[in-house]
Structure formats: C-alpha cells, structure tokens
Protein 1
Amino acid sequence: MEIKFTEEELAEVNRHISKYPQKQAALMPVLWLAQHKWGWLSTDVMRYVAELLELSLAHVEGVATFYTMYFKKPMGKYHIQVCTNVSCMLRKGDVIFNQVSEHLGIKHNEATPDGIFSLEEVECMGACGGAPMIAINEDFHENVDTPQVLELISKLK
Amino acid sequence: MNKDFPRLVLPNIENLSDFDTYVKNGGFDSFRKAIKMNPDEVTNEVKKSKLRGRGGAAFPTGLKWSFMPKGTDKPKYLAVNGDESEPGSFKDRQIFEYNPFQLIEGILIASWAMGLTASYIYIRGEYHKWVALMDKAVQTAYERGFVGEKMKETFGVDFKTDIYVHKGAGAYICGEETSLMNSLEGKRGYPRVKPPFPAQFGLWGMPTTVNNVETIATVPAILRIGAENYAKIGAEGHPGTLLFGVSGHVNKPGVYELPTGIPLKELIYDVCGGVIGNKKIKAIIPGGSSMPPLRGDEIDGINMDEESLKKFGTHIGTGGVMVMDEDTDIVKVTLRIAHFYHHESCGQCTPCREGCGWMEKILKRIAKGEGTTKDLDLLISVANNIEGNTICALGDAAAWPVRGFVTKFRDEFEKAVSANRSFVARNVVHGKRSTREKLVFNA
C-alpha cells in the first residue's frame, strides 16, 4: 500500500500549515489526519508526515509517542474507552472496565484478534457529571452501566 | 443568598450556540463597546472587575493582560486553554457547546486590549465533538465577517485578528501553560522553565498570554454589565460567577453557574440535591483532583471562593467538586489519583517522574494490605520532596492530594496497614541493601 494523502487531504494539510507561523506546528493536526486515514501511525506513516512537514522522523516519532491518543499499533475498528478516574470510579467505572475487559477477552490497550474491538482504560475525559462514562471511537456515552455497555457493544458486532 | 443572580457565561437562552440568536441577544455589543475604548482602558476594566483566572491558579486576569509588552512590532498571541483534563472538571465543554460565540467575542476583546495577531483555542483531543462545534463556530464568525480581514469593514475599525482551533491528543500536562505552548508549536508537551514568562517569550518566542476558556468567555459579560457591577457579584476577593462542576455521590451532578462564595453545603445539598441515599459525606475535593481534600465533617462555614478555601488549606482550582460518601474507600481513591499523576507526569523532572511512581507503588502496597505504618510517613516524605522541586505545577498537583488524604484520613490509612504495624525501625525501602545482611554474608 502506498502511503500518500489524496489531493483533498493535501489541501487540508496546507490549510493546517497556513494557521501557524511555522510549518512544524501543523504536526499535530496532520498526525490526526494520518491516523484518521490509516487507523494508526506506523513508522512509514510517520516518515511520510515527516517528509511532508520537513521534519526529522525522530521528531515526529517523539511527538507521536508523547500523546496517548496517537495509536502506535493497530487498534480495533471500535475503540472502546472506559474512564476509571475518580468521578467515574466513585460510580463504579472500574467495575464496568473489568466486566467489559472480561466480556471481550482483552486487556487495556489491546485489540481483539478480528480487529473489531479494542479497549482502553482512559484517564478523565471531562464528562464527570455523566459518570460513569465510556467513549466508543469519538462518541461519548454517559450515565451507563455494564448491561448498557454490553448492549452497545453487541449492536456494533 | 440571592437566587436571582445573573447567569453570565451560560445564560438560559435557547439556541444561543446559533450565530443569529447570539447576535440578537446582544452578542458582539461588548466588543463594539471595547473598540470605542482605548486598549489600555479595556485592560483596566478587566482589572477593575477583579476577574481571576478560572483555570486553577486564580491569577488576576487584568494584571496578566497588562504584562504584555506595548509598542512592539512583534506578533502577539493568545492561547485559550481548553485542555480541561483535570479530573473533576467538565465546564469548558459546556461553553463550546452552548455559548461558543461568547468565547469568540471574549477573544476579540482580548485581542483588541492586547493588540493580538492571532489566538489559538487549544481543545483536548478527547473532545472530538466539541472541537468540531468550536471549529464550526469560528468558521461561521469568519464567514459573517466578525473575525479576520473582514472585521475591519464589519466593525468600522482598523484592526484585524485571527482565531484558530487546535486539537490536542491526550496529555494532561498540556493544560500547563508552557507545555500547551510547546504542544501548539508541534513539539512534545514539555513544560518550559519560567522565567522567561509567556508574556516575554511565549509561542514561537513572541509575547503570549494564556487564559482559560471560562476566563475569556466571562470578559464580554464584564463589559456588558460593567466592571463595578461584576465585582459586586459573589465573594469580595474572588468575585463573579463560576462554573461549578459537581460529580461523585450527589443526586444531581452537573455544571452549575453560581456566584463565587456560595457555601459548600448549599452547593451540595440545595443545588445538587444532596448525597445519594442520604448518606454522610466522607470527603470532598473542592477544585479538581489536584487540590487537597476536605473532610466531610469540616465543611461547615466553607465558602466556594479562593480566599475562603485558602483558609482551609485548599484551593478553588477549576471548580470541579468531587463528593465522596461515607462508604468510600479513601485508600483506593488516593491510589487512583496517584496512578493518574504517575501516568501523566511528562518525565522531565526527576522528583515528579520518580516520586509519582514511588507514591503509586507505596499506595498499591497499602491497598493490598501489605503496607506498614512507616509507609504512611514515607508517602508524606515523598510528597514533600516532589512539591516545589519541579519545573511546572504537576509535581505540586500530585503531591497535594496524596499528602492531604494521608494527613486528613490518617485513621483510614492506619486501619489499612494495621495488620503490619511495625514498631521496629526497619529499613523498609532499602531493606535488601541493609548492612546487617552484608555482615552475615561476609561472616
């Protein structure tokens, strides 16, 4: 597979570059774009981004590994994030995490062998008023309990 | 307390996130007022309002603005901090969703007051939906000619500024102002050593101010009602309204805009409907997980403003109140908090990198029932050695809650280690390297 953005995506890259006085600052948005397209950031993808923004691979890799939301390995099609931080833990978020983990047979930062689900125990996602909460890919689900989460998961299959 | 206080940041107006509704309800009038004033006068108004930063440190906003150098031809920037990753805080997201144009208007007023070239709204990566909402709001403002080149025509003023939205990617540390700037520049989010302060050497080495989303969104309201009137709302030393995010064991958790200085008891029992199952309160964290906790039996007479909380050894922080009922396992909560800071420490300073991990390790031991009484003093000693010895405030943020919980709930911790009460001065940590073992070995 050739690693290359389409014309439209390159236009988007240029739009991001134009927002900042230095090209390097567009790195985070471009990494987001790349992850959206390829699902995760392989070394080849990072090399491509580095060339695009005239940066060293070391710098791009340094940034990508610093931020937890950039995936450094393939994740599931549905990335399930369960918050277990204090507000969610007080309302049994940790129990939900353990039960989901058992149900899917995977642990923190792992994906199912068929590549459909991955699980992450996340830190506070800023939805404490709706604790306990989970997020599936980009969507928040608040005030949930384990049966509800398992039902959500079964619908995704 | 007067229940008919004005809601300034999140007014009860339907569909306010729509541009036309916002304009119809007096939107951008404050900015029009601002451009009739001299930029310094605007800063003075903010100073007079006694507005204090809503991001945690409660620093006077007008004073911060006045640090920006004048008469320089360098570009100047504003970074609006919407990283909001402090556990217990979920207020800025309400602004992105329900009142985005007031934030944009606030940025315009700040831009006029400080002569800014551009502003960047930094929103945490997990807020995909709210990044998109804010991005759309900014685009609308551009299209309607309220931001960018066209604003000269719209407002009839020789001034233009730009606003951009920047999406983070999951790093608590990026809520720290200098780390946020590094992140914006496309680097790892390592905090910078201060001085130089952002107002001298900020984004790309240019003068920069970093303000919280809620702070900036409050500014249009100040110009609308007048600085003197704003300063009369709530507590004297820390006036205005504040978005309190209440979570944990309460019946009605959520974000409430209330005057500062509201009694903590009133907030929990009247506003949030009390504790679930009418249980007693064991502990309260008043301003996000990095603030020292309060015991449930000491909350009488505590008002929710910085000056009042300071007297009780804690702070207002981000206004994220976490309530824990009598059945809460304090050791487990402390362990969870320590785990969070260990996970989020950027690893730049040794005391924080090593200390946070060490505290977590000790707490894990205690939670498993393998701790000793000496561990409790060790925890406090480690916390004391992190505090104040790091580049940024994450070190303090990690040390305060651990030390706070261990000192205020010593009884709970004692119980957790009681099986292993140690009366012998044994060298627990470096036990394996003790002299005695070596001597025996040599003999």
Protein 2
Amino acid sequence: MKKVIVTLMILLLATTAMFAAGTKEEGAKKDVTLSVLWFNDANESDVFLKTMDDYLKANPHVKLDLQIVAYNEYDQKLKLMISGGNPPDLARITTNTLSVVVDSLEPIENHVADVEAVKKQYLPSMVAFATNKEGKFIAYPTEATANGMLVNKTAFDKAGIDVDEVSKTWTWSEWETIVKKVIAANPAMKYGLAVDFTPHRFSTLMYQWNGRFLNEDQSNIKFNNPGTIATLKWFKHLHDEGLVPKSVWLGSENPAELFQAGLVAGHIGGSWNINTYNKNVKDFEWKAVRMPKGAINSSVPGGKFVASFKGAKNQEEAFKLMAAFADKAHNEMYSRDTFNIPSRNDAQVTYPSNSGDFEVFLEELKVTPAYTANEWKNTNLSKVTTYIREQIVEVLLGNITAEQAAINVDNRGATFFK
Amino acid sequence: MEIGSSTQGEPDPSDRQGCLPLGIPMKRHTKGNFHQTAAPLLFLLPNILIFGTFIIIPAIQGLRMSFTEWGVFTTPKFIGFDNFIELAGDEVFWKTFNNTIVYSFFTVALIMVYALALALLLYKNVLKGEKIFRSLFYIPSLLSMITVGIAWRFILGDEMGIINYLLRSMGGDGIRWLTDGKLAMVSIIAVSIWAQAGYYMVVLIAGLQAIPIELYEAAKIDGASAPKTFTSITLPLLRSTLLVVLVLATIASFKAYELISVMTKGGPGYATKFIVQQVYQVAFLEDRMGYASAMSIVLMLIISLFTVLQFKLSGGEADHE
C-alpha cells in the first residue's frame, strides 16, 4: 500500500511539474515587451499610448517599454543603439532621421502580404520619404508635416490689416511693407518674423526664391546657385533691417517663445506648432496664413513615421503593432489628438479646433515642388546641414559674403557626395 | 641633522634596497608574504579593471579609429595619416582650437584668482556666516552644467532674458550677451567661473588650513606685512594645491561641452565653438567617426602637453626653494 501511495505521489508530482513547465513555456512565448524609442514635439507619446490602448487590451501579452528621448539627442541615441547591435523594436522617426538610418530599417514587405496595397493608403509624398533606394517601403507614415506661417492676427487687426485677405496673394516685398505697419501699430511688438534656427526652415524661403541644395540629379551638392545666394542676401537684409530677431539665428533663442510672448508678428515653423499654440497662446488671436510668394510659392514637406529595425528582437509583434497604429481609425484618432495632418489618403479628421489652420498648411503642400521632398530625403545632405546652418550665420554676422558661404558649403558638401 | 638623513660621503641607508628610512632592515618578501604582494594588487584590481575598460581600451580604440575612414554604419577603412593631414588644413577645426585656447586660458586664470580670493576670505572661520557663504559659493558646482546653462540662458537671453527685461523696463537697451561674438565668449567664461569656482575654493581652503599657524605667528612677530606673508608663506606652501587646481581646471576647460551647447550652441557662428563641439558634430552629425577620432587624439595630446608643462613648471619652482 505504501509503495502504491508513494508511486502515485511521484506520478502526481511529475504530472504537475510537467504541466506547470508547459504553461510557463507557453507564457514565455507569448509575453512580449516591445522597446519603443520616442520623442515628443508636444504630447505625442501620451496620445500614442491612448491610441494604442484598445490594441494593448486586446493583446495583453504585448507590453510597451516606451523610452522618451529629447529630440536633439534622438538621432545620436538611435544611431548608437543600432551600431551597438541593440536597436529598439520600433521607433518614431522624422524625415531627417529617416535619411540617416534608412539602411538599418526592416522593409515592411517582409511582413505584409501586399505591400503595394499598404503604400496606396498613404499620401504620395509620405510614401516617397518612406521608400529606400532599392524601392522598398521601410516605414509606416504616421503624420504629414509642412512648414508654414503662423501670424498674430490681433496685431494685424490693430494695424487695420485684414491678414486673411492680404495673405491670399502677398509677395515678400508686400509682406515687408505690411509687417512694418504692424510693428508700428503694436508698441510691444518688435519684429515681423521669426524663422526656426534650422536649415529645414531656411529652405522654405530658399525654395520660394528658386534656390536648391543639390544639383538636378541630386548626385552632388549645388548650394552655389543664384536662388540660394539671393535667399541668403535677402535673409541677411531682414536681420539687418530688424524685421527678424537676431536672437534666434545668432543666439538660438526659441522662436515659438518669442511668438507666444507677442514679440513677433509671424513665425515660420512646422505644422506641429498649431498644437503648441493651441495650448499655450491665450493672450491674442493667431492663425495660419499662406506664406508670401518669392519667385514661387513653396513649403517643405516632412513627416513622422514608425519603423522597426533589422535585428530588432521582437520584429513580428512590432510590425503587428505598427500596422494597427497606422490603420485608418488609429491614424485619424492620433492625428486629431496630436493636431497633426494625417498621413493617410482616406483619413477624415475633425479637429476640435483649428481646422482652417490645417487647411492652410495642406494648401501650401499642394503647391510645393516634388524636388523639395527628394532633397530632404538625401542621406548625404543630412550630413552637411549643420555646416550649412553655420555658414548662414556667418553671412548674417557679416563675416563672409553669401557667395563665399555658397562656395564653402559646396566644398564641404562635396566630401560627402564622393 | 635630520633623523634618517645621510652623513656626507656616506651612502644614505634609506637608498639601500631593503632598508627603511631609519636604516632598519626591511623584511624580505617571501613567497608566503601575501599581504605585501598580492593583497594591494587585489585591492587595486577593481579600479584597474574599470579604468582599463572605460578609459584605456576606448582610448586605444580611438587611436586606431583615427587612422580610418569610418561611419557609424560602415566598416572602418584604413587610410593612414589622411585624417591628420586633412585636419591640418581644416579651417573650422583651427577656429575651434583657437576658441578653446582663449576660453581655457581666461577661465582657468580667472578661476584660480577668484577661487583663491574666496578661499582666503573664507578659510579662517572668523567672518560671521562664513559657512553659509562657503555653501553658497559651493552649491553651483553641484549643479549639472546643463541646468546651469538653461538657468543662465533665462538670465542672459537677448529677448527673453531677465537682465535685458530689467534693462528695457528701466528705459535702456538690451545687451547682446549671447548674440555678439565677443560678449558671448565673455558670458560663457563668466558662467563657467561662477559654476566651478566653488569647488576649487573648497580644495584651496583645505590647502590653506593645512599651513601651520605658527608660521604666520612667526611672520607677525618678525613684522612681515600682509602681502609679504602672502607671497612668502601662503603662496609657496599652497603651491601643490594650486597645481592640482590648475591641472583639474585646465582639463575641465578643454572638455567644456554641455554649458556651451545649451547656452550658445557654439555661436554666434563659430564664436564659442570649441574642439569638443566640433568633435561631436563631425562624429554624430556628419557621421565621420574616423576624422572625429583624429580630432580627439589631437585634443588629448594638447591636454597632455599642458598637463606635463604645468607639472614641469611647478617642479622647476620647487628646485629653487
């Protein structure tokens, strides 16, 4: 009897252990913690989590390890993670970053049956950005961005100027006359325009004056061209005239803060500023208007994406999550709550406010030449942009001429296009 | 004659191998004398490992990389001395080199003077509230340079800065603290001194307190004036501490990065851009790791040169005493 009991006990223990081990193994297979690298322009990480809440509830085995990194540290952090062989499972990426890490991204077509059907869902400019040189689709577009002008409408009203009306057709020389009147009518206002301290925002003006960074086939840098030199001279003129605050390009002061403080009549920045100003500006009325015309009208398209990387540990789950995040319902929700332009063709977004401002940015995008996107997609251009920024500042300081700056940039840039 | 010193013509017993300074024969190391041989090495081992892993090996790797053309995502390609040859003709590098020297010279010199003045004022424990003042001057050195930079941007900003706001509200014009090249450099130097002097003040206070009080009493009895006492007693006896401060402050000034990045981003133009900023830009924004490594090697050589020079100069003075 004793023997039987002992045998039964051993069998029971062995069975329990076996089942317990089986359950553990199955659980280990299922539980996935996705490492997500993110940066914020405003509240995007919160909205991302909120947007994916239903997905995470439906997939309880998926957990997110969200690392939020300051944007100015972002590229470096991501590059080090990739080169160290430890890329995140997925990351939020800008068009700039995309050009830097493009070769490390895992193509979407390796994880979906019909990649062409996926591509058709997005704006053509976004698909162009997210396509590598082998023609592979390597990132899900999440939001489209554009550069545009936001103005202090209250200040224009005080000067008796209907900014809605004049901005429909204004040129930069007309803008100059108008904005001087606005400054004169508003004692607290000191400047006409703040332009973000980045070559990307400078290029908005450059494209309007028919300037370029690269040559026609984009095989080399060609900053030394009449349009770019004209832009440099005109940009210096605006600084010298006191229409643009020197503290932004010479002292890296934040132009959005100057605009919010009511010190400048307008701000050329990205469409994400709509979200920022919607939250922060309470003292005056502001709105987006069409930018003045130089030789042509132009903005600079951009966007944000989510992508996974070659060698990421949890690629399969990462792609499932990204596909869900990029679907129509989630994209609409994310675009609405982050005040961004949706990346999908079929998205119907009703913003709680500022719909008209988004329309203006979309209008700017419609007249923007295709080469602007192609230039900013160029990996080698991204390596020389900091030097370009320094050379622009040298021109503004009067240390070198616009012509000399253009030659310097071409010389330096050529080393990256070898 | 001092205890343990040698008589003329007779070899110093302490020079003889195996003898302690007083001529007492040292115990010979034996195989079993673990405490005197292996134990110290074992205690040092963790530090040696950390230093080797995080300093020596990366430094050797950096030297190796300086002879290559290498982007983060590409395989390094050996190119000999090409990076160093390019560096010799790189106008931006030499601008940053020049800025680094100017910044280091003024920052280190003024830190030495300011920290020494503070230490002299606050080391005797005779002033009322001396400990509070010591803490007040020391606190900035506990802050991260990023915090310091952000705080001073709020103070010195052209349009949004507190000082210019006050000046304008009193009817004056704002001062271009950070947008005028020369003023930006002055601002950076001033903030660096403010942020670091407290730390060196504490080091110097320790040095001052180690000087025997009897020497000052003797000088007083001999009728020595305060400046004479300072130059004949304080400065000579503080020399080794001053050397430590000099070396540490020089190394820190050559490596200044965060403060400048936050306050001026190296601008306006190249006015406050230093070698370290240029290394960062070339490595991480231009993706030229090999070339950036060559810059780092040159920076390391410059720092080493200055450090050796400082030690040599200090040693030379010691010989005259």
